[in-house]
Amino acid sequence: MTDRQTHDERGRIRISGFDSDRVRDREPMSDWTDESSGETVGRWRRGLRKFKRNRSAMGALVIVVLMSLAALFARPIEVFGVVVQPFSLAPYDPTTILYLGVDPSVEVYDPPSWQYPMGVDGSGRDLFSRLLVGGRYSLSIGFIVVGLTASFGLIYGSISGYYGGNVDELMMRIVDTIFAFPGLILALIIVAILGGGYWQLVLAFSLFGWAGYGRLVRGEVLKIKENEYVMAAKALGARDRSVVFRHIAPNAMPPLIVLASLNIGSVVIGVAALGFLGLGLDPSSAEWGTMLNATRSTLIQGPGGQIPWWATVYPGGAIFIFVMSMNMIGDGINDALDAQQTGVGRGGED
Amino acid sequence: MSLQRFILKRTLSIIPIMFGVSVITFGMFHLTPGDPVTQLVALNPDVTAAEEAALRERWGLSGPVWEQYLDWISNVLVGDFGQELQTGREVSDIVWTRLPETVALGLFGWAFALIIAIPAGVYAAVNKDQLGDTVSRFLALSGISIPNFWLGLMLILIFSLYLGLFPVLAPSRSSLISPEMLRYLILPGITIGTASAASIMRVMRTSMTEELNKEYVTAARAKGLPERTVILKHVLRNSLISVVTLAATLTASIVAGSVVVEVVFNWPGLGREFIDAINQREINVVMAITLFTGFFVILANLVADIVYAALDPRIRYD
C-alpha cells in the first residue's frame, strides 16, 4: 500500500474516482484484512515461541510429559479384553503382595534396595510400581476436571457477561455463594454423600469447581464486548450465540488457559488430600494420597527401631514434583501470553 | 461514595449470599438420596417402619423439603444446630469447644505467613533478577506446590522423629493459652501457613516491582530520601494494599487447610471434628461446620473489602 498511485497529472481530466483498482487497494475502513484474520493464530504462535525460550517452563513440561508417559506405560491397559497398551514399566502389579508368591524373603516396610528401588510398603507391595501406576489416578482426574470445569466456566461466564443486567446479577450471586466455601470442603462433602470412587472424585471437584473460571471469563467478556468488532457483528445481524462463541469467547481464552494450567495442580492436590483423609478411592488403590494415608499412622506412632521414610517421602514427592511442574508451566504460559499483549504494543519484538 | 455508605452497601450485599450458602449446605444433604434416617436404618436392620417414621418426625425430616429447610434455618438463626445423632450432645456446644483450637492454629498460620512473606517479597523485589530473588521465587513456587498434608508429614519426620525437637503428638493437652502449647503449635502452624506465605510473597514481589517503577519513587529518590525510607515508607505501604485483596482468599485456604492439617497433627479443632463427623455420618455436625465455614469466609471477604476501600478510596466508586 505504500506505492499507491496518485493521479495528479496536469492538463487532462481523468476520471479516477471509480477506478476499481483503487477501491480495492484503498485504506480499509477498519483494521480488518484477510491477513489479519489469521492474527489470532499468529499471536498464539508468538506466545508459543516465547514459551519455548522459557527454560524452566520447558523443563517442567518435560517432567510432566515423562510422568504422564510413565503412568500410561506403567502397566498394560486393557479395554474390553483387548490389550491396547502392552508395555509394562512397573516391575510388579501394584496390588501384588511380594511375600506371597513372588519373593518370600520380602518383609513389610523393607527399605529401598536394588530390587525394590523405593522400598516396600506396609502391606508388602513394591512402592516403585505403585508410584508409577498411581500417577494414572491423580493425573487423569486433574486433566479431566480442569477440562470440564474450564469449558463450563467459559460458557457460564460468557453468557453472564454478555447478557448483563439481571441475568448477570443472578449468575454472579451464584458464583459468590460457591466462593464462600473452600473447594476442598465442598469436594469432601460430595464424596461423603456419594461415596468414594474415580467418577465420584471427578464430580466432586467439577460440580463447583467451574465458579472461578466463570468469574474470570465474565470479567474478560465485559471488557471484550466493548470492542468495535462485537458491535459490527451485531450490526451485521449475527445471532447472540454466534457473537458470543465466535467473537467473544475466543478472545477470553488466554487468561482462561493460564488459570486452567495453574488449576490442574490444585485439583491434583485436592484429589490426593481426599485420598489422604481416607475419603477418595479404595484404601488399597495406588493413588498417591491414599498411599500416604496408609503410612501416616506408622510414621506418627514411630514403629520400633526404624522409620519407614520411603513410604512417605516418595508418594508425596511425586505429588509435589508434578504440581510444581504444572505451576511452572502455568507461570510460563502466563508470561508467554502476557508478553503477547505488550509485544504488540511494542511493535512486536519477534 | 462515602466510606460509611460503602460499608453499609457491602454489608447488605452479603445477605443474599448467606442465604445462598444456607441453601447449598442444606440442599447438598437433603436433595440427595438417603437421608440420615435411611442410612441409620441401613446400619440397624431391626428398626421398624413405625420407629423410622417417629425418628424422621423427631429429627425434622418429614414433610416437603422446603418445610424442612424453613424449620432448620429458623433453628439455626437462633443458634440451634440440633443434636449429635449418636450422643445427643448439642452441636453448637461441640462447635464452640472446638473453635478456639482452630482459631489459634489459623492465627498462628497467618502470623507465620506474614512474618516470612513480607520481608521475603520486599527482598526479592529490591534484588530483582539476582540470586536471592531467584532462590526466594523458587521457594515460593515450592510453597504453593507442596501438598500441606505431605509437608506436615515431612516436618514430623524431620523435626520430631529424626531431630526430636518437637513432640510428635500432644500426649495430654493443657489449656490452649500456655507456653507449652506453643511447642505443639509450631509445626502445624508452619504447615498451615506455608501456602499462604508463598502466595503473599509472590504477590508482594510483583506489586513491589510494579510500584518501584512508578514516578513517585523516582521523585522520592530525587529529593534525596535514603533508599531505606523510599522502600519502607513509600513503596511498601502501597504494595501492602494488594496483600489485603489476597487476604480473604487466603483465609478460605487456611480454613480448608485446617481440615487436613488437623488430621495430620491430631489437632482437636473444627477441621478434625468435621472429618470425624463425616466418617460417623453425623449430619448435623457436618452441616453446622459447613455453614459456619461459609459464613466465616463471607465475613472475611467483607472485612477485606472494607479494609481495601478504607486504604484505597478509588475502589468505592465501582
Automatic annotation (TrEMBL), chain A:
Residue ranges annotated for the ABC transmembrane type-1 domain, each copy included: 135-330
Keyword Transmembrane: yes
InterPro entries linked to this entry: BP-dependent_transpt_permease, MetI-like, MetI-like_sf, OppC_N
GO cellular component: plasma membrane
One GO BP annotation of this record: transmembrane transport
Top-level division of the source organism's lineage: Archaea
Keyword match Transport: yes
Main location: membrane
Pfam family, one: BPD_transp_1
Bilayer disposition of the protein: Multi-pass membrane protein
TM ranges: 56-74, 137-158, 170-192, 198-217, 256-281, 307-324
Signal peptide start and end residues: none
Subcellular location: Cell membrane
Keyword annotations: Cell membrane, Membrane, Transmembrane, Transmembrane helix, Transport
Family to which the UniProt record says this protein belongs: Belongs to the binding-protein-dependent transport system permease family.
PANTHER family, alphabetized: D,D-DIPEPTIDE TRANSPORT SYSTEM PERMEASE PROTEIN DDPC-RELATED, OLIGOPEPTIDE TRANSPORT SYSTEM PERMEASE PROTEIN APPC
Record's protein name: Oligopeptide transport system permease OppC
Origin species: Halorubrum tebenquichense DSM 14210
